[in-house]
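ok so for the tutorial part 2 we go from a plain amino acid sequence to predicted structure tokens. step 1 is just haveing the sequence, like this:
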Amino acid sequence: MPAKKVHIVSLGCPKNLVDSEVMAAALASGGYLLTKSPEEASVILINTCAFILPAKEESIEEILRMAVWKSGGMGPCTHLVVTGCLPQRYRRGLKKALPEVDLFLGIAEIPNVAAHLDLLFKAGPQSRSSVIGKPDFLMNASHRRLISGPRHSAYLKIADGCTNRCSYCAIPSIRGKARSRTIEDIMKEAELLAAQGVRELIITSQDTTAYGMDRKGKTTLSRLLSNLVGVSGISWIRILYTYPAHLTEELLRTMAAEEKICHYLDIPIQHSDDAILKAMHRRGDNALIRNVMRKAREIVPGIAIRTSLITGFPGETTKRFENLLSFVREMRFDHLGVFTYSREEGTKAASLPSRISEREKQRRRDMVMEVQAGISGEINTALIGTRQEVLVEGEGELDGYPHVGRCRRQAPEIDGVTHLRGGAAETGALVACRITDADDYDLYAEII
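step 2 — the prediction. this is what the tokens look like for a chain of 448 residues:
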């Protein structure tokens, strides 16, 4: 019998992407063939996100879009499978709401996906099932991955779940409590990735600075990084999702001391007004955030800092929003993203009064992004004439710039890129460049 083909759609964050890569490897080991084309697939698997309303809407839209390949008779698709956060969060209602789906799998079933597909095919075309238990899966180095993005860059998920309990966030109820991998196990995976040609490791979890807090001993992010810099073949290590109240001076000093660790930090602060931070159940106040920013820039000179904000949280008065705008102008973040507040059932913030209209949330978001565009433009312009190390991502799309890449201050997908010209640039290579021009989000460089 020819092997059945599976097409995987991965939605949401990098942490979800790692889960998709684990499932891809498990399916390949189980005898399934992977295809990038839904029109060729016998099975379409959608790994969903359900963090906030737009993510849920995107997941449902994608499920319905892919269902056409099964119901419309346009290809060989016989089964539609939905995994990840959406079925984990809404386990009871989805079978009735989405009759197009043949199988719903929770997070615990990520490593067992091939066995579930085997059972699905044996049960026949009319079979529908749902397997959703406690979200306790934590990958380890024995769970191989098929890297879906560029071979030179990979996310390294060091933990799963979260114990912070922010009032607006459903992640703890979806992903469970924070649980960290051992340093030894993470090192094994890092070495495997390096052997496959990965040059950049991007450290990720729900809260990377909480790494090791659930374990006894000296398991800390700083100690992990000190070990990872010794992995042969790895040139860059980038850190995402650091919680300001957990960001230690030890971590900053480790960054400053180790050349391989990019002088880049993603520090989602969500807001700057003390009343809003308290209502969000965030640990730390405006003074703490300011102190973290000051220490980061003092200990790691030239560090690029990204943050994420939420506009329209209940109780965000005009004055409190103006406080946030002033804070953004003062702090001058290198990169910044803004979400409008999404009222999520099951969270403590869902019952808060003083709600703000969707239109006003969006207006405030746009105002923050307009301010940030000017700041980013000024920061980028100041880089003109500087020498930067750039990781080449591939062919460019701009006239006169045949290649595109990222410098150490740019994370994939969420920040700008560096457009390259003037020399040979093999994908995955690190090249020395001089910045010749800039706009609000991107840099332009000449290869030296």
